[in-house]
């Protein structure tokens, strides 16, 4: 059986239907408030991800992730939590059969819109629509930190990867954002408050342990740092500050003042955000 055939059809079929006819529609055809909020959140996340993708170091990092996957032409590589699907398109250009999976219908719609020839399915990292040992490569970029139990995703990756298959996990450690700011203590509070709202904010520093515990071998870890000095990442800082505020750790006035400082820095070319990105790679035992 080919790797393509190994994708579970019963999971594939409803995927397209659910995205083409969004569940966001209620029976009378109007979106409910929750769905509208979810769509806005997806759009806001997409604009932050697009801005992050534009820095040259991000493009280099994606290339590095493809090198570490040790791509075998024609083989299936799954990009888990594929978002808007850029890696799927780039992997297709490298001669493999990439499959993007993501649970967010809005992300899948964006992916299909941007890369019409790409293969995308609705699924979670914890329950992937592939048979045991049927996939040669597994990639998850900026995904494990959103999971409540990254261990389950690592075990699921181990289940689907064929002997010798490669896994590459990449992403930021949310406690490790470095932001130049007037108020260092408030900055730490905001960064940590935002981090604490995530399922696994420090998953990136745990990649090695997660991979070893799941039974992978030849585990390697690298750290590459993205540096942003223009206003492109202001929306990310707004998201961080708003989340810290909504979570009750930071008062409205504190968040506003902190963001005003960041806006002034951006306007006067004094903005600096540095984010260390972990890249861990490993093999399924032969
Ligand atoms: C920060 S985005 C990263 C998207 C993409 N990998 C990129 O680098 O642009 C995180 C993605 O993980 C997806 N996600 C959330 N929960 C997930 C889960 N349980 N399994 C797989 N993906 C998930 C989100 O829908 C979102 O597309």
Task: Find the CATH superfamily of the largest domain.
Answer: Vaccinia Virus protein VP39
- What's the pLDDT, averaged over the residues? 89
SSE succession = HHHEHEHEEHEEHHEHHE
Q: What is the highest CATH level, the class of the largest domain? A: Alpha Beta
Query: Per CATH, what is the topology of the largest domain?
Result: Rossmann fold
* Helix content percent band: 40-55%
Bound molecules: S-adenosylmethionine
The gross shape turns out to be globular
Strand content: 15-25%
The major sheet is characterized as: 8 strands, mixed
DSSP summary, beta strand count:
8
Number of helices: 10
Our count of domains comes out at: 2
Name the CATH architecture of the largest domain: 3-Layer(aba) Sandwich
Query: Low-confidence spans: pLDDT under 50, at least 5 residues?
Result: 1-27
Rg value: 19 Å
Structural class: alpha/beta
Topology of helices and strands:
Blueprint lengths: L8 H12 L12 H22 L1 H13 L7 E5 L5 H8 L3 E6 L2 H10 L4 E4 L12 E7 L8 H11 E12 L5 E2 L4 H13 L6 H11 L3 E12 L5 H13 L5 H16 L5 E11 L3
Parallel strand pairs: 1-2, 1-4, 2-3, 4-5
Antiparallel strand pairs: 5-8, 6-8, 7-8
Helix pairs in contact: 7-9, 9-10
């Amino acid at each position: 059986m080919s790797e393509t055939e190994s994708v579970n059809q019963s999971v594939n079929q409803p995927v397209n239907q659910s995205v083409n006819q969004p569940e966001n529609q209620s029976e009378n055809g109007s979106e409910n408030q929750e769905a509208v909020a979810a769509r806005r959140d997806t759009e806001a996340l997409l604009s932050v991800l697009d801005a992050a993708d534009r820095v040259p170091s991000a493009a280099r990092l994606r290339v590095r992730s493809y090198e570490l996957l040790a791509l075998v032409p024609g083989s299936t590589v799954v990009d888990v939590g594929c978002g808007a699907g850029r890696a799927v398109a780039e992997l297709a250009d490298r001669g493999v059969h990439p499959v993007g999976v993501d649970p967010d219908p809005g992300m899948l719609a964006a992916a299909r819109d941007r890369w019409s020839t790409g293969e995308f399915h609705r699924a979670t990292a914890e329950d992937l629509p592939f048979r045991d040992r049927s996939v040669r490569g597994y990639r998850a970029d900026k995904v494990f930190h959103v999971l409540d139990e990254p261990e389950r995703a690592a075990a699921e990756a181990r289940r689907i990867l064929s002997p010798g298959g490669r896994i590459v996990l990449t992403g930021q450690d949310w406690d490790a954002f470095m932001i130049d700011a007037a108020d260092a203590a408030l900055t730490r509070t905001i960064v940590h408050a935002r981090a604490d709202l995530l399922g696994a904010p420090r998953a990136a520093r745990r990649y090695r342990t997660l991979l070893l515990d799941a039974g992978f071998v030849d585990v390697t870890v690298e750290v590459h740092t993205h540096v942003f000095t223009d206003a492109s990442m202001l929306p990310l800082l707004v998201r961080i500050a708003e989340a810290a505020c909504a979570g009750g750790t930071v008062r409205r006035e504190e968040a506003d003042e902190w963001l005003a400082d960041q806006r002034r820095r951006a306007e006067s070319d004094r903005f600096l955000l540095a984010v260390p990105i972990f890249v861990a790679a490993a093999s399924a035992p032969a």
